[in-house]
């Protein structure tokens, strides 16, 4: 299991390849990456605040819970904080398992929990102002399926 | 009891501080919130709608009814928006 919280950019392709290379017996690797979206066409930047200490604990707990539910060879969670430009990579998860069903399910589980149980907050800054991104009701209800 | 209180996102902005140390006799999170609300308008505004506030005790998610005995760090923040 690897958990990384960092301000620096990361190379999604390189991370995926390195992750797959260290899980040779797995047979299936699933990865997801989140990108700063500019839905309005006005976004200057996004700022991500987090709670150092609790963030790492929460992510470790979520990854450990995935490891209890599915037979996983490895899990990677990488999340950035600080200022990010539209189109930049915010975060990624990757899961490795013997078969794809487990890897897919575990990756979805990680994302559902990461969205509303890991202490990150997004703020959108445009030319005309700034606003904290509000949590979506669907994100909370998404947890019920697990 | 001495507590470190942390604020994040719009709670931090409304209160104007990322952290503070308080002396309190509050037995629960809800009692601590009442003490903070009485301090001044910034706190009253930040804690005006508790449905929009989450709390963590020593870096674990908790709730407003939780006891504070033995707790060292309390954090208040809005619902999380990671991913």
UniProtKB/TrEMBL annotation, chain A:
Record pathway: Cofactor biosynthesis; molybdopterin biosynthesis
Keywords recorded for this protein, A-Z: Molybdenum cofactor biosynthesis
Broad enzyme group: transferase
GO biological process, one term: Mo-molybdopterin cofactor biosynthetic process
Catalytic function, reaction form: 2 [molybdopterin-synthase sulfur-carrier protein]-C-terminal-Gly-aminoethanethioate + cyclic pyranopterin phosphate + H2O = molybdopterin + 2 [molybdopterin-synthase sulfur-carrier protein]-C-terminal Gly-Gly + 2 H(+)
Protein function: Converts molybdopterin precursor Z into molybdopterin. This requires the incorporation of two sulfur atoms into precursor Z to generate a dithiolene group. The sulfur is provided by MoaD.
Subunit structure: Heterotetramer of 2 MoaD subunits and 2 MoaE subunits. Also stable as homodimer. The enzyme changes between these two forms during catalysis.
UniProt record similarity statement: Belongs to the MoaE family.
Annotated protein name in UniProt: Molybdopterin synthase catalytic subunit
UniProtKB/TrEMBL annotation, chain B:
Record's signal peptide: none
One Pfam family, short name: ThiS
InterPro entries reported in the protein's UniProt record: Beta-grasp_dom_sf, Mopterin_synth/thiamin_S_b, ThiS/MoaD-like
Stored Gene3D superfamilies: 3.10.20.30
Protein name: Molybdopterin converting factor subunit 1
Organism field: Pararhodobacter marinus
Chain's gene name: moaD
